[in-house]
């Protein structure tokens, strides 16, 4: 039972990374019907940006604002930087292609992904980079026999705040309603007076911003980052998106958390080597029995 | 197609390309012959994915998994039992096709992006399973090595670059002939009909499920053949050759060339395989340029370099306007 609970906590931690990244995929897909393959690499770029900030800016910020200040500053700057990068990608690589349809945009997205991945390699070098150790003090708590680190608590709290914030924006505000309306039917939404360009601007800024934050968190959690990490996390997060039902915001959150938990439980009880196989098997099984994901609603086919 | 003077005159570009391909290896060094060999491999894989993606419009981003099945079938049967490569070619094709039939049967009803993610998952499962060395036969991350050369018995062993170049391009040529016939047959028309409008196809009596599965099985079989040649040329297969990234490259070959267009596939595979070689002088910047080139390419020619002529008007209806649900 103790192992089970500890694995659940580990799973939730990883799952919250997946959920944060998955939101970017899901929002973009919802409105644009585009699988943004560059999203995973934007996440990796965020991780590297956070790395540089923590290594170079660490001394100045931490002496003046304390450790927490340094960490939050790194996340904020990474989020803003990656949000801007997301908007740039949309303007340069996607906007000119929208009229041509969906498939050319997929190729363009893959091109951006290759570009970003190699840009990271050129700037930061092909080797692994290690995050600084002292960002969060390595304190370990024991609650009822369950070990949990301070870092895990911070990551869980931060990501749940972010998820709750996004949920609030999407589900409760007028602007969120505009996003949901555009996801349902873009042309009708535009006729109802929703400024589609603002919506697109917003989702391409917010999705990558959340991804960039997740990048910094992943860096702090695993302490080792590489320029190819975008593909691995991107693929998992995309899987999470589909698991929850693509284009569905709460679905992406639930899918991400579930995926993290599946992965950890699978590696604890079945086999570490086969944990990714396990993840994809679950995905395929879910899709066979619920072809629109766990939370996706059934849409009648139009003839 | 009857080969008389008229057909040669009418189709002179095709014969020019064939002549160029036949003569060019004698004017290149071994390095470039090998580059053109891999161009041939990509062309074969592109043709195989073109059946699934180009003809039927099914998003398959795990196509490398089928090639991996073919390559590992060849590698394992050859190194463990010493079966000659030439006999393993149909065996690999059948193994890959059988695998496709097995895994695609339960998921063939999925639409659009959901099919896409399931094929990604399938390709990844194949790769990860190979890395984990099940039953100690796949050799884990190192792969299987010591595979024989392709041999036709006696002294005729394909062991030089130029010989393997001709083997792959002859197979590509034969596949193209077969695929052109397939395009013009009842099957090809049924496939295109499904691609343009699945519901209309179903209501005119086309067995959608059967034809979709057939596309996957044929595509996988052809990829299995490519795997067989690849294994015997490199003499080693390892899971690293069959990554998701490679499947994405195949996807790009079909889309850069033009969906469902056979000359397009050749151009697309030339772009994917020759581009990084031509820009080798830029060292670490070449993939950077490659990414930019893909984006620029799609901005200026979103339909591909050589879109298919027949059905070129209907091509647009395949691509729903943004905001429309394709699933």
Summarize this structure briefly.
By secondary structure, chain A is mainly alpha-helical.
What this model shows, in words?
The complex is a heterodimer of chains A (303) and B (327). With 303 residues, chain A is mainly alpha-helical. Chain A has a single domain, classed as ABC transporter involved in vitamin B12 uptake, BtuC, CATH 1.10.3470. Helix content of chain A is 76%, strand content 4%. Chain A contains 10 helices and 4 strands, in the order H-H-H-E-E-E-H-H-H-H-E-H-H-H. In chain A, the strands form 2 sheets. Chain A has a two-stranded antiparallel sheet with strand order 1-4. A two-stranded antiparallel sheet of chain A has the order 2-3. In chain A, helix 4 packs across helix 5 and helix 9 packs across helix 10. Chain B is mainly alpha-helical and 327 residues long. Chain B has one domain: Orthogonal Bundle (ABC transporter involved in vitamin B12 uptake, BtuC). Helix content of chain B is 68%, strand content 2%. In chain B, strands 1-4 form a two-stranded antiparallel ribbon. In chain B, strands 2-3 form a two-stranded antiparallel sheet. In chain B, helix 3 runs antiparallel to helix 10, helix 3 crosses helix 11 and helix 11 crosses helix 12. Chain B is globular and about 55 Å long. Chain B starts with a helix and ends in a 9-residue tail after the last helix. In chain B, 48% of the residues are buried. The C terminus of chain B is likely disordered. Classes of the chains: A mainly alpha (303), B mainly alpha (327). Chains A and B meet through helix 3, helix 8 and helix 10 of A and helix 6, helix 11 and helix 13 of B.
